[in-house]
Amino acid sequence: RPEGRLMAKPFKVKKGELVARLGGQERQVLAFVCDELTDLLADPAPPPEIPAWAKEFGLSGVGDSRPTPDDPVVARLLPDAYDDPEQASEFRRLTEAGLRATKLAHVAVVREQLDHDPIIITDDARAWLAFLADARLMLGTRLDVTEDDELIPTDDPEHNLYLYLGYLQQSLVEELMGG
Question: Distance from CA of residue 131 to its chain's centroid?
């Protein structure tokens, strides 16, 4: 960026519409992140068809128990609700498929909108916020980021992507709160 020139905010409300102002390279990077999250969240063992009674209670699974995922990133994206392994497995059995589906739906919204010009996200801000949070959680887990870490650019592209996603998340939240 030219010296002394401020970088345009990536999200801006214009004429009542929330617009994402992202360049081609930014869109490519976000598309790659979408694809990574989609691969991680794909259910390796889809549950059987959900009976009507379970759907009425908001339950997404009634099959066999579901252990905590082996992949630490997936385990972080789909955390246990209980410390007790038996309770955690039971809760996961009843809710994991729905949680995966919701997260995948958010990623799909972002992925599809990256091909639009301009990207108008007024009705999909929740999907963008959830996507950015999950993307940062994915990278933060891989990088073993803690609250004590100094978050400054480094030579590590994944670390810098983590920082960039945080910048996007902050910019979106600020714009949603009125700039």
Answer: 3
Instruction: Locate 96 and state its tokens.
Output: 């994991």
User: Which pTM does this prediction carry?
Assistant: 0.84
Residues in the chain, overall count = 179
H-assigned helices in the chain: 24-41, 52-56, 72-77, 85-113, 125-143, 157-176
Token pair of 136 as six digits: 């940062």
Element (H, E) at 117: none
Phi, psi of 13 (to 5 degrees): -85, 120
Given pLDDT bands bounded at 50, 70 and 90, which one contains residue 91? confident
CB atoms within 10 A of CB 53: 9
Look-up of token digits 């038996």: 86
Q: Which SS3 state, helix, strand or coil, does residue 14 take?
A: strand
Is the backbone of residue 25 left (phi > 0), alpha (psi -120 to 50) or beta?
alpha
Closest CA to 102 of 127, 79, 119, 84: 127
Q: In this predicted model, which residue has the larger pLDDT, 58 or 114?
A: 114
Cα–Cα distances in angstroms (integers) from residue 93 to residues 23, 129, 176, in the given order:
41, 26, 35
SS3 (DSSP) at 30: helix
Alpha-carbon distance 160 to 158, whole Å?
5
Residues 31/114, Cβ–Cβ less than 8 Å: yes
